[in-house]
């Protein structure tokens, strides 16, 4: 016992000192770890917002409404409640707009690498240090991206940024129109075309260009009448129908948006390379905040750059910084992840939609042939961004109204220069938007099958009960 | 000695145990502190960039060049070297542009509150949840700011955002021009006017409006010819000369940019309320990435909103988020700090400039009378954004060339509809830009004094040796 008492203190002290040493090591380790200083408050705020999961049917934003100190959920269409958990089965699917929300989960999975901290004093000049309005680091990264994807050779090409394709499109039309001619350039596109071609060209009512509608109307005159300048919008894959379009006025082809001014000799070849839904780049807009154009001719590049400066002093510096960060994520690792994610998501949606409508005689989808994809080095089945739905029955002339009655909000074919037997359905919104649309389409087709079974072939006043 | 040995272990153990308890408390405390999760990498990256101080004569940016893993300094004009520490005394001061870089130190002092983390999935829609392209939180904050400053009553007014004043100005001209008239609206301004009024209106060459130059040319015709629509740009305080301008075509007055279309009856009163250098808001642009307009008429607001959507799908969501954050800082505490900072900085610069040029007979500055300021509730001495320098001597007709020779790059008066005996010098760039300009001006005036002393009164081929 005496022996034990003699050793109890030294042994206890030894253990305690060992523990001291462990604590010191831990403490030093913890203190040597990087801790945020001035960025802490912003980081904490953002993480608090991101922690609001909204049941997976919505999301909170840093600039959204705050109630009692908590960020409020912004729910997907047809979901309600403080945490977006309540589904409204009678609600209409809104698949009208081209918001590329299907990419949201991808960026959420890459929260760490895709976040960016903007300092209060970030880029307070109207220009970068080289006096341009274009971030040279972003320019370099975009060239790398094209080389990686293999969809464009950027050597000798100039890059112009726009705050979205709409700004770039008008800048291009402005730059390509002759400014010393009494006759405005004729802006044309093949039906069905992206509505902005018409609406924007007409809205900006310049003395130098005028929207003239369907390109095919000028197929003959374009060869005989060389005094007119034609600017043809070519979108390939086309919006809305996903077809690989070609310029009808000249046999020039691009995988992307292309504007070909045909004035006498072939003097200009202009490309607006915008990321599109295709086998290689399966999304309509890689970035929602910035688009770019690859321009061949220096004078067109300069004219477009002047347009951007006069219009908005170039693209927002904040968006350029964010774009730089997001494109770095795109190029991370093998640089295939976002393409595989997008491709898979869009292919799944397209397959499900096709399966649903394959049994219908009342509704049809556009046919898209599989293409060989350089990037994935294989032939890939279609995965378009939009469904170009046709109401096949004569009595369903107002197709948007027919599908609206079935609980689906699409975009009228007339906006695309086509007619109202067509509707464009957006497949690139959230999974919820797609699922609700499919749910309503399934009910529509089921009703059709039942009617066929019952021998009813007339137009039902309501396809489905909402 | 035996007594001491008997107590050494228990005492040691006690100390060690106490130390362990302290460590446990520290450990628990440290672990309970908030630590960044996914935002850590972005925060670390930004802090590393901000830590590059560039000797106070430059700054590194998150989207700037990176060499060997280190962000590269972007130096102020006339400073060089990897850390911007080398001053080039023979270098010309560049005070041409209106970059509001004088606010950089303010935002650096408020690094924590002005930083913002943008998540990868931030606002991937083309619209906010209310389907607009305007952040309602930002709209609300701007109204609060105006109420706080007391420079505008926003009740019943609509707010339109633009990616800078240039976009807003053209949107306003577009919205105010008649679209059903064969005659384009006449866009006018009083000389000297902000160059964009002319350059932008001419550049966007619409069929609906045309730049017609000096407003005073139409003072008579505007009263007799009521069939024409006039759109008058009024900037008050005016850019470049800081004068409190009034509309010459109609006696309507605003403290800010104002566009008054004068078509027959007084039907529209339109205000583009842009933050300007005045006693109350002593800066040209509070935010470099976003401007806003307060609009009285609903139809003008809708037309401007349509313009913004067609043009750029509204203002970048990233910029709106950042603007929200920065305006929150502006409103922090008493909400006076930024105004006091700006007011003091600009007043100091103006006083120094005046002192330097007060002894010169060759150069003069505009005269600005002190104004009563509602915000500060006192009469304040002038603190304009720009110096409107005049070369007084007949032989110095090309004033920009004269001061260029002296090592100062200003903007030619001809761009403002005036003549080349005037130059605009920007006072709102960095302290370095201002100091270098003042340094060269001092040399210029010293040379003038020496010449007077020596009885030389002819034009020197070079005012100062660079």
Automatic annotation (TrEMBL), chains A, B:
GO terms for molecular function: carbon-sulfur lyase activity; transaminase activity. Belongs to the alliinase family. Its cofactor is pyridoxal 5'-phosphate. PANTHER family: BIFUNCTIONAL ASPARTATE AMINOTRANSFERASE AND GLUTAMATE/ASPARTATE-PREPHENATE AMINOTRANSFERASE-RELATED, TRYPTOPHAN AMINOTRANSFERASE-RELATED PROTEIN 3. This is Tryptophan aminotransferase-related protein 4. Residues 93-445 form the Alliinase C-terminal domain. Keywords: Aminotransferase, Membrane, Pyridoxal phosphate, Transferase, Transmembrane, Transmembrane helix. It holds the Pfam family Alliinase_C. Residues 37-91 form the Alliinase EGF-like domain. The chain crosses the membrane at residues 7-28.
